[in-house]
Amino acid sequence: MTDTAECKPEPVEQESEERDDAHLDDIEEGAGCTEIWEHLAEQREE
What digits encode the pLDDT tens for the residues 6-42? Predict the structure, then answer.
């Protein structure tokens, strides 16, 4: 037996309703706070 935890993430189910974070779908994976803030600011201007 090992002391490391097993990592088996559960698959994310797609819901028919829009997700709470759907407004962030077009932001790159790993984006930081500044990139997210800029993206949201651009959406507000439109």
Answer: 777 676 665 557 778 888 888 888 899 999 899 889 8
Burial 2-38 (b: 16+ CB within 10 A, else e): eeeeeeeeeeeeeeeeeeeeeeeeeeeeeeeeeeeee
- Name the pTM for this structure: 0.47
Neighbours of 39 (CB within 10 A): 16
Q: Phi/psi zone of residue 30: left (φ > 0), alpha (ψ -120 to 50 degrees), beta?
A: left
H helices present in the chain, as ranges: 33-45
CA 19, 22, 27, 32 torsion: positive or negative?
negative
